[in-house]
Design a protein that fits this description.
With 134 residues, the chain is an alpha+beta fold. The chain has a single domain (2-132), classed as Nucleoside Triphosphate Pyrophosphohydrolase. It has helices at residues 46-58, 120-132, and strands spanning 2-11, 17-22, 33-34, 37-39, 61-74, 78-91, 102-106. The structure holds 8-OXO-2'-deoxyguanosine-5'-triphosphate and magnesium ion. 8-OXO-2'-deoxyguanosine-5'-triphosphate binds at residues 4, 6, 8, 27-29, 34-39, 53, 80, 82, 115-116, 118-119. This is 8-oxo-dGTP diphosphatase.
């Protein structure tokens, strides 16, 4: 089975809002909301891929990224390992640079079912951690 290594950015601003983008209609996990990111290329570290993908997809230059989680998930015919980073420092203002819809959502208001199934446990963790801070 194909196995993808993917770098993913949880972009969080000072208001505890997280930047989400909508996946394209013709992609795997079409029309789901996602944390921006993409495939790690040969010879790249996860963090290098994160920086490249976030620049391509959202226009920001990541200046600091913290490892947040690593998730392994098998879809029907595709295995993915998602390398999640928490991004709280960047230059620029994120936007859907590839024309994809975007929105900021309060961390505590995230809805797991809007994301690909691989993200469910991670979204639950983000919501749980947001309650501690109130
Ligand atoms: N970016 C991203 N991908 C995710 C998430 N959750 C999840 O299961 N995936 C899966 C969907 C895809 O099968 C896989 C790779 O993501 P991708 O389609 O963004 O890869 P990419 O940007 O390199 O895509 P492309 O250049 O080939 O268009 O990871 C998520 O939150 N963000
Ligand atoms: Mg992508």
């Amino acid at each position: 089975m194909k196995h993808l290594q993917v770098a993913v950015g949880i972009i969080r601003n000072a208001n505890q809002e997280i930047f989400l983008a909508r996946r394209a209609a013709d992609s795997h996990m079409a029309n789901m909301w996602e944390f921006p990111g993409g495939k790690i290329e040969p010879g790249e570290s996860a963090e290098q891929a994160l920086k490249r993908e976030l620049l391509e997809e959202t226009g920001i230059e990541v200046t600091q990224a913290k490892v947040f989680d690593r998730v392994d998930h098998t879809y029907q015919d595709l295995r993915v390992t998602l390398h999640f980073f928490l991004v709280e420092a960047w230059n620029g203002e994120p936007f859907g640079r590839e024309g994809q819809p975007q929105r900021w959502v309060k961390q505590r208001d995230l809805v797991a079912e809007e994301f690909p199934p691989a993200n469910y446990p991670l979204v639950a963790r983000l919501k749980a951690e947001s309650h501690q801070n109130h």
